[in-house]
Amino acid sequence: DPRPQAISDAIRVIPHFPKTGIMFQDITMLLLDPVAFKHVVDIFVDRYKHMNISLVAGVEARGFIFGSPIALAIGAKFIPIRKPGKLHGRVISEEYELEYGSDRLEMSMEAVKSYERALVIDDLVATGATLSASISLWVTRAGAEVVECACLVGLPRFKGQCRLKGKPLYVLVEPSHFDGLTI
Q1: In what order do the strands lie in the sheet with 181-182?
Q2: Which residue of 50, 57, 123, 168 has the fewest C-beta atoms within 10 A of its own C-beta?
């Protein structure tokens, strides 16, 4: 299947952004390439269309880009997992540590039913902290079952899967360039 290579080729690496030592995985060029973008969505849809997933949770902000079309294609609802202060009404939140600081995620309390099967999607997994916090929102607080986590780019150097509370992780591409810290 040549699609993963085409996807990988469409991801631009920006050295030393946003700070020295970071090899930023920029998906902008992929989004500007409708063929590569469609490959991403098609591969994820093929994987999840028969798993009885009732909701797709996209982690802000790039998880929204991939989660929305995947949810539509598999007949699931899409739920945004947001940064603090961006949702109205009752929310639940989860604080977590990143490799370069800490952050918090929030989700609407009205968004989830306890019987639902969820897919959590983001653009990149490094340490797994963001996905782990997302799983905590779904499992611990909302009672839904996280079937799997999915990411466009996975950085094996950081062993992100070990922080995912035993949930499976599906990664579409892994970059082959590791000159420094990569996010």
Answers
A1: 12-15, 22-26, 181-182
A2: 50
